Amino acid sequence: MKISILTPTYNRGNLLKNLYESLIENSKYEIEIEWLIMDDGSADDTENKVKEFIQENKLSIKYYKQTNQGKMNAINNLIPNVTGEYIIECDSDDYFTNDAFKIIKEEIEKNKNEEDIYALCFLKHNQNGKNIGKEFKNRKTTMFDLYFKEGEDGEKAIVFKTDIRKKYKYELEKNEKFITEARMYHKMDLKYKMLCINKPIMVCEYKEDGYTKNIIEQFKKYPYGYYEYFKEIFEHDMKGVLWNKRLYVIKHYILFATLTKNRRLLKNVKGIENKLLVILLLFPGMLKTKIKFKNRG
After folding, report:
1. Strands 86-89 and 156-161: what pairing?
2. Which residue in 163, 190, 282, 297 has a CA-CA distance of 20 to 30 Å to 79?
3. Domain with CATH 3.90.550.10 in the chain
4. What CA–CA distance (Å, rounded) separates 190 from 94?
5. Which of 21, 19, 63 is nearest to 42 (CA)?
């Protein structure tokens, strides 16, 4: 069994060692590991740090460098170089638990006859050992159902089947550098499902310069991709979507339609209930967006 770890990184040379050491720790579980790193135009000592890792010869490492194109393009550009049977995307400020690959190996072998799945989905913990989000309610689901019908609200660690993952990519709009991963996941959901395992395999530490810490700035910089994402949600089966999640979708759809100056809001919305909600929330939503983003460059 071979697993490919994909890490996009930008000026995070000081953080990579935690991930590197966690991969070495997990190499004892008789799983072949390759670590593919895409340096997204770093100006720090990232390249030298990675060269030191390579010289230690403890792990198969492939290092690539590109002009700054953003996290999603970095991963898209790594995918063709993957040779493992499974793929895990791991940010530079995340790392694996000491028994992560033991758990992954056991769960893959246990569920090897599940042919209609695109991934195994595990828990992520923060550095205090606390679960990020909630535990899974269902063993087999889709990413859309998990977050919009089952009420999940935290990041998860995903182990993709490579042969399926390579059929998809992160779709970016108008030369933007970022889009929520969920846009791709939801398209995978249309053909496949995923298995959810209530075991942590990854530790996550959010940095002040991370996407999550600066979500408003990300909304302002990359509105077109987010608009397409929320527009596409209406194409899914909305039956069973939780009320608070439905409102979340409507409000953000209006927000990004406002930021992109899109005037065809109702035409893109499917379902009478959804159209009525858009009509009711349209003007308050547009006003709130204009006030909130007025003084942001």
Report:
1. antiparallel
2. 190
3. 2-204
4. 29
5. 63
Would you state the structure tokens that stand for residue 23, as one six-digit string? 């991969």
> Whole-angstrom Cα distance, residue 88 to residue 94?
12
Domain 2-204: CATH class, spelled out: alpha beta
DSSP string, 257-290: HHHTT---TGGG--SHHHHHHHHHHHHHHHHHHH
Taking Cα atoms as reference points, which of 209, 222, 214 lies closest to residue 44? 209
Measure the CA–CA gap between 202 and 96, rounded to whole angstroms.
Answer: 4
Q: Is 48 helix (H, G, I), strand (E, B) or coil?
A: helix
Query: Do 91 and 181 touch, CB atoms closer than 8 A?
Result: no
pTM of the model: 0.92
What is the chain's mean pLDDT, rounded?
A: 93
| CB neighbour class for 8 (10 Å; exposed up to 12, middle 13-18, buried from 19) | buried
Question: pLDDT tens for residues 44-100?
Answer: 999 999 999 999 999 999 999 999 999 999 999 999 999 999 999 999 999 999 999
How much of the chain is helix, strand and coil, in % rounded to 5?
40, 20, 40
